[in-house]
Write the structure tokens for this entry.
Amino acid sequence: MTTTREPTRIVTAHRQLEGGGFVVRRPVPTRGLAHVDPFLMIDEMGPVDYAPGEAVGAPDHPHRGFETISYILDGEVEHEDSAGHRGVLGAGDVQWMTAAAGIVHSEMPSRRLQREGGRVHGFQIWVNLPARLKLSRPRYQEVPAARIPQARSADGLAQVRVIAGEALGARAVIDTLTPVVFQDWRLEPGADVTTPIAADHQVIVYVFGGAVALGDGAREVRDGQLAILGAGDVVRLRAASPGDGARLLLLAGVPIGERVVQHGPFVMNTEQEILQAIRDYQSGRLGEITRTADVRQ
């Protein structure tokens, strides 16, 4: 017998400036909600339409102690880091970076986007690492849109892109160090789909288009809202309005249950570890981005 997870809390994302001056919608962290273990931050970038010369990004900045996931829906983002990885992410692409012991990272609009302007929309999500992995070797996974597994419900009204975990028979190609689920769902009018999520996972749903009816109680969650789901082993998703569809991220992970001490881009377990991260960054031990030939298009 299965138990459907029901929403226990709904929060509305606030807007703030990040990086070089771009606006994000941020449901986590927000007032009264520091994080949803193991998720530290969820930023929705845009959608925004830039005129030529206006596009901005996140220039060189360090990370230590967690993972960053960049998921691009529209636009082009040039990325570089101190480990020598570089390239351009386009619509549908995913970059899963395990900062772990430390890395310096940059994400900027492509040269074409800066020159011509255009729409930018995407997500950056921070996932915590347990203490045993915080100082492990950094690693990097980049998956183009064509390699992200997709599936549809039997009636064709629900479609999912599986970035981590599995759904509707599709299994992700990304390998995660800890149990993490990351799914991008598109619900057409009339969609009603149920997907299993292991009972030991914390589950959250962020709606970024339309409205979703969650659980057997059909509690409505609207665009820009995040729902924290309670205990159970399946998640039920429905388009809230018979005439409208919806778009949402379903995120889940096994809670780490450790103390979280955060200072900007460093997330550790103690204040002393944060001070060491700052010293390591200031002394150059996290490396620096070596610029060579242009990679921007």
The mean pLDDT is 94. The chain has one domain: 7-253.
